[in-house]
Amino acid sequence: MKLAPGQTLAGAQIAAPMRSTGVQFSGTNAHLVIRNLTATHVYNDGFNIHGSSRDVLFENIRAIECGDDGISSHDDCQYRVSGFVSIGNSTGICDTGNSVTSYDRVFIRNCLGHDLYFLDTGRYWISNSVVLSSAARAFVVTGRDQTNPPCRLVLDNVLIRRETGSNDVRVTKNSILDARRCTFLNLSFQATGGEVRLRDSVIAGAPAPEIVLWPGVNWRATGNLYDLRSLRLDRSFYSPQTFADFQRATAGDAGSRWQRVVVADSWPQGIPAGVGADAAWLQSLIE
Length: 287
Description:
single chain, 13-stranded parallel β-sheet, 11-stranded mixed β-sheet, 6% helix
C-alpha cells in the first residue's frame, strides 16, 4: 500500500491497536469498583476478567470498537455491571466458565460476531437493557458439553431488536433461558435443547419471525404475545387457528395468544400493559 502522491503519513491517519484490553483482571481479586471508564480500539476485550473475582462493581463503563468482546468474564469470576455501552465490538457481551455476572442498563449496537453470547456453567443476569442486533449471531445461550450445573441466563425488561438481515435467539443443550417482560423483534426463536422459560414477553416483527422447538426442549411459557410466520414443535407445525393444539402439546402457554402486532417507529404498538419490555423506560438508553 502506498500513500497518495503528496500525502503525508500524518495526513493518512494510519492507526494500529497497541493495548490488548482496556481493563484486565487475573489471579484473585476482591472489593473493587471500576467507574466512568471507556475502553476503545484495543485488540482484545474492552473489559477482560479472568481468575477469581468477588465483590466487583463496574459502573458507567463503555467499550467502543474493540477487537473482541465489549466485556467478558471467564473462569470463576463474579461481578456486577451498572451502566454499560458496547458499540462496534466483535461481541457485545461474552461470559464463560463458572462465572456469575449481572448487568443492568446495557446498550449494545453495531457488533460483528455475537451481540450476546453466554456459555458453560455460569449464571448470568441482564435487566433493563436494549440490544440493537446486527452481528453474525444475535444471541446464543449454551452449556456446550457441561451438564452440571447448566448455563443459565435471566432476562428481565430487555428489548432485542434485529436491525439487519434475518437471525435468531438460539438456546442449546445444557442451558436455561429465563426471560420475563422481554421483546424480541425481527428475530426468530430456536431452541435445539435445554429449557426455555418465557413469561409476559413479545415475539414479533417484520418479516414475521418463527419459533422452532426441537425434540426434548423443555418449553415453559405463560402470558406471551406472538406474531409469527410459523410455530414448530418437533415435526408438527401450528397456526393461529391451531395454537390451542400447541398449548395442549406443551402443557403451557396459558394466557398466551397469537395475534397481529403492529410495529411503528421501531417499537411494537398496542401491547397490553405488563407484556413485553417497557418501551418508554428503555428509550432513554438508546444512543
